[in-house]
Amino acid sequence: MQPSEVVRHLVLPIAEVSPGEWVSSVRAVVLREDSVLTMTNLDGDHILPGVRVEEGETHDEALWREVFEEVWVKLAIMDRIGFMQLRHTSHKPDDYPYLYPDFTWPIWAASFAGFRPDLMVDDGYEVSFRFVPFQEVSDLKLDGHESALLEAALAMRT
């Protein structure tokens, strides 16, 4: 069961990585030539594929695993571009096993390095993915923090 309300605070550029004990998952903006990886899940479109970090796993390893499993894409991770500080504002459900109420998502910029369809895992949440050309991104109705992160990832390329 997931808590229903979360407050987000985007921090750009990243000056320090938040303490590891606050990191619940890692996310990335994945660029390919003139497009960005866009995920469609049960809640809509987003450009921040991410994953919970497993015991003993680095942030890079977690991102590689997640993007492989969900969209068959190999990554070349460029650098951290920021992080999200999040806080649940509702009561913690008894069966909720994750960090509560405060947690952090380090956000990375990454570039597409190839497809690996043999590694896809259907998690029942992510429905599809596609690379959306930059000139069509405004049609996606992204949250403000996603637009800022896309701009930061694009700035890493130059």
What's the arrangement of secondary structure elements?
Blueprint: E1 6-11, E2 25-32, E3 35-41, E4 44-46, E5 50-52, H1 59-71, E6 73-88, E7 102-115, E8 126-133, H2 144-157
Parallel strand pairs: 2-7
Antiparallel strand pairs: 1-6, 2-3, 2-5, 3-4, 3-8, 6-7
Features:
single chain; 158 residues; alpha+beta; Nucleoside Triphosphate Pyrophosphohydrolase; 8 strands; 41% strand; globular
User: What sort of overall outline do the alpha carbons produce when their principal axes are compared?
Assistant: globular
CATH homologous superfamily label: Nucleoside Triphosphate Pyrophosphohydrolase
* Low-confidence regions: none
Structural class call reads alpha+beta
What can be said about the biggest beta sheet?
8 strands, mixed
Your description of this structure?
By secondary structure, this protein is α+β, with helices and mostly antiparallel strands. The protein has a single domain, classed as Nucleoside Triphosphate Pyrophosphohydrolase, CATH 3.90.79. It has helices at 59-71, 144-157, and strands at residues 6-11, 25-32, 35-41, 44-46, 50-52, 73-88, 102-115, 126-133. Strands 1, 2, 3, 4, 5, 6, 7 and 8 form an eight-stranded mixed beta sheet that branches. A hairpin with a 2-residue loop joins strand 2 (25-32) and strand 3.
Quick structural gist:
Helix content is 17%, strand content 41%.
